């Protein structure tokens, strides 16, 4: 049913709380898992990219310890738009994400990334509260 699952991750508590749900769905559906982290800085930042790459590698290893192989992607841009673009690019059948990640729009408007993804996604979105 869900051949490819996209799991956008950041260091938020909501991401951590979504992991058991992702594990359960991936195992149940025997899905391919793609972990995505989005760097919001407009210009490349080597130090930040290295930190995000390390974060993705540790997340990949955590899933591997549960018997799940995962692909990792690091992209730059506005998180909601990048998430939806990547979902389209990899033909994701499902996006799973926490209800509120660490990103907010620059002007402080309180619309969450997850709310924007719901409205823009090319596939179903599961928000884990």
From TrEMBL:
Chain ranges of the UspA domain: 1-129
Gene3D superfamilies, per database record: HUPs
InterPro entries to which the protein is assigned, alphabetical: Rossmann-like_a/b/a_fold, Universal_stress_UspA, UspA
Signal sequence coordinates: none
Family in the record: Belongs to the universal stress protein A family.
UniProt name for this protein: Universal stress protein
